[in-house]
């Protein structure tokens, strides 16, 4: 593991994406505990992409236009569904108690996982990114090296997302005192997710 790997990973993770938006939304609406659960779910959503890179499924996605397009549009549909749900449900970001019940916690984690699973760009990212940091001399242990580097990326993702969540949770008091802000944030999050879905739909491979 090199400093270059850590810096590159941090730059990629810090860039706002669907996982960041989801964690921020949960931090504001549910507090720090909800944000940690969201960060945990988003981090778990990286696992399938790492495994896909290890076993070569990412290469298949890259080579097969049909497979890539199917996965991409599933991701687009999911993002647009979340955006529509935010606009439709007036209580989607309703600020409540920080101690969410177990059932709600599982739902938060599940949504976080799905948010990152349906993103084909992650598979292609790991396919192009991880091998660059594996020494040629480690050809016999390349799988272990890729799993290790993927684990490092996941750990950094969790820490950064928790940081985002803590920042969002710190704004809860201001949100509580301004109910109109909740409506504004709900529409902003919905718009951001919708735009990301459209961007993914229109993006070139």
TrEMBL record:
Bilayer topology: Multi-pass membrane protein
GO MF entries: homoserine transmembrane transporter activity
Annotated transmembrane regions: 6-28, 35-64, 70-87, 113-134, 146-169, 181-202
Coiled coil, from the record: none
UniProt keyword annotations, A-Z: Cell membrane, Membrane, Transmembrane, Transmembrane helix
InterPro entries: LeuE-type (IPR001123)
Stored Pfam families: LysE
Entry keyword Membrane: yes
Keyword Transmembrane helix: yes
One GO cellular component, as annotated: plasma membrane
Protein location: Cell membrane
Family: Belongs to the Rht family.
PANTHER family found in the cross-reference section: ARGININE EXPORTER PROTEIN ARGO, HOMOSERINE_HOMOSERINE LACTONE EFFLUX PROTEIN
Name of the featured protein: Threonine/homoserine/homoserine lactone efflux protein
């Amino acid at each position: 593991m090199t400093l270059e790997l850590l810096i590159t990973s941090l730059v990629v993770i810090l860039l706002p994406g669907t996982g960041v938006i989801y964690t921020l939304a949960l931090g504001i609406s549910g507090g720090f505990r909800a944000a940690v659960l969201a960060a945990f779910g988003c981090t778990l959503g990286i696992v399938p992409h790492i495994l896909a890179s290890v076993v070569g499924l990412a290469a298949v996605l890259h080579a097969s236009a049909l497979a890539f397009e199917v996965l991409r549009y599933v991701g687009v549909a999911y993002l647009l569904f979340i955006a529509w749900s935010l606009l439709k449900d007036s209580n989607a970001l309703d600020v409540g108690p920080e101690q969410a019940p177990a059932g709600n916690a599982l739902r938060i984690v599940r949504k976080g996982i799905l948010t990152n699973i349906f993103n084909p760009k992650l598979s292609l990212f790991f396919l192009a990114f991880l091998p660059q940091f594996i020494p040629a001399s480690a050809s016999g242990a390349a799988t272990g090296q890729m799993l290790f580097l993927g684990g490092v990326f996941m750990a950094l993702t969790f820490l950064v997302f928790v940081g985002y969540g803590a920042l969002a949770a710190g704004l809860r008091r201001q949100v509580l005192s301004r109910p109109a802000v909740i409506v504004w944030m709900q529409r902003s999050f919905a718009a951001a997710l919708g735009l990301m879905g459209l961007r993914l739909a229109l993006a070139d491979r």
